[in-house]
Amino acid sequence: MNEDKLHATARALVAEGKGILAADESTPTIKKRFDSIHAESTEDNRRDYREMLFTTPKAPQYISGVILFDETIRQNAAGGTPLVKVLESAGIIPGIKVDKGAKDLAGHPDEKVTEGLDGLRDRFAEYAKLGARFAKWRAVYTITDFLPGAACIAVNAHALARYAALAQEAGIVPIVEPEVLMDGDHTIDQCDEVTEVVLQSLYSELSLQGVNLEGSLLKPNMVLSGKDCAEQASVEEVARRTVRCLKRTVPAAVPGIVFLSGGQSDELATRHLNAMNKLDEGRPWRLSFSYGRALQAAPLKAWAGKAANLKAGQKAFLERAKANGLATAGAYA
What we know:
By secondary structure, the protein is of the alpha/beta class. The chain has a single domain (3-327), classed as Aldolase class I (TIM Barrel), CATH 3.20.20.70. The chain has helices spanning 3-13, 27-36, 43-54, 70-73, 83-89, 120-130, 150-169, 188-208, 235-249, 266-278, 293-303, 310-327; strands at residues 19-23, 63-68, 93-97, 102-104, 112-114, 134-141, 173-180, 217-218, 256-259, 286-291. It is globular, with a radius of gyration of 19 Å. The mean pLDDT is 97.
C-alpha cells in the first residue's frame, strides 16, 4: 500500500470548489431514468449519455472525480478512446462502484446487508489496471420505531471496513457510504440518533481492520426529516444537525466528507451543502458532494436521448456542477 499516493488521491477528490459525479447507476436503474425521458436504454445510448457528461466543457473546474459502473469503465467513447482516458485527459479521477447491491439480511426482516466481498481482491486488481483510482461501497439502513437493529449496523460496518482494507491494498481510495434512508415518517431527531450510531460503529470497525483514514473518504446521508414526516426541518437545522453529528463521530484524519443527495431535489441538496459550509465552525475535514440524481436530473431531461440536444444537456450539467462547486465554499446563491 502506497500511503502517499492514497493520501494525494483522497485530497484531490475533495479539492477546493470540487466534488464527485456519481455516474454508477446499474443497468436496471439507468433504464428507469431513460424510461422517464422515453429513451431506449441501449449500450450505445448509455455510453453517449455518460460521454456527454464527461466531456462537458469547464466541468472539470467543479468535478474532481466520477464514479463509474462496471460497464462504463470498460467502454470506449464514440471516437474509440476509452472513457477512462477521456476523464483522465480532462483532469478528472476515474472511480468504480464495487458492491453487488443491498440484499435481504437473513433473520432480520426489512433490513439489508450489502454483498460483494467474494472475489473483491481480484476485481480490485482488474479495476486498478483499467484505471480506477478510487471506489465506492454503499450500505443502507431503514429507520422505523425498531430499526435499524444492532445486527444490521454491525454486519454493514464490517463489510464496509473489509472493502476499504481491500481497496487500499490495491492502491485504490475507498469511499465508504453508509446511507440512512430518507424513506419513512421519522423525525430529524431519529435520523440524528441513528446516523450517529451508524457512524460510530463504522469508524470503530475501520480502525479494527487497519484502514488508513487519511487515504479514505466518507459518503454519508445528511441528517434529515423522513420524506413522509409531517414536520420538515429547515435548511439551517439540517446543516447544523448534520455538522454536529459528524463532529461527534468522524475522525479528524479523514480528509473529506462527500455527501450523497439521497432522494433530495437537486436544489435542496445544493442548499443544504451550502448552509453547512457557511456555518462558522472549525471543521477538520472538507465538506463536498458525491451526487447522482442531484447532478444528473437536469441534464438528463435536457438531453432527452437526442444527439441534437447534446449542448443543452452539457449546459444543464455545468450549471448543476457549478452550483455545487460554489456550495462547497458556502458561496451558492
